[in-house]
Structure formats: structure tokens, C-alpha cells
Design brief:
The protein has 69 residues and is mainly β. The chain is built from no helices and 8 strands. A hairpin with a 7-residue loop joins strand 4 and strand 5.
Length: 69
């Protein structure tokens, strides 16, 4: 992921159309080397049992709602 000037991070993976579950793995503090998994705070859909965000990709772009053709 690449950090933007506004402090957000972005990436553009080359993935096929479909539904994807995801989460972020981040290093909590440099001192303790502890990694934690978190759900995307901007995810519009998530699976609470698997603790993952859910997104849909169509024609190389993330769909911003649940409407999948």
C-alpha cells in the first residue's frame, strides 16, 4: 500500500471481477512488533463471524454498493 499526502493508504491490485473478503494486517507499534488484523472502517458490508470486510469488483473497480449484475 502507498501512503497518500492526506494520511490514507491506497493500493490497486490486479484482481478479477467478483466478491472478495478482506481485512488489514497492521503493525500496532514499532516497539513491540505486534501485528493485528482489523476490518476496513469504510467497509459497507462485513462478515462478523469471519471478521472480514466484503467488497465487489467489476471491470477492475470496486463497486460502492451491493448491486452486482
Amino acid at each position: 500500500m502507498n501512503r497518500q499526502n492526506d494520511g490514507t493508504f491506497v493500493c490497486f491490485p490486479d484482481i478479477s471481477d467478483g466478491q472478495y473478503e478482506y481485512k488489514f494486517r497492521i503493525k500496532r507499534k514499532k516497539e513491540d512488533d505486534q501485528w493485528i488484523d482489523i476490518i476496513d472502517p469504510y467497509a459497507t458490508k462485513y462478515d462478523p463471524e469471519r471478521d472480514t470486510g466484503i467488497m465487489w469488483v467489476k471491470e477492475g473497480k470496486r463497486l460502492l454498493n451491493d448491486a452486482v449484475d
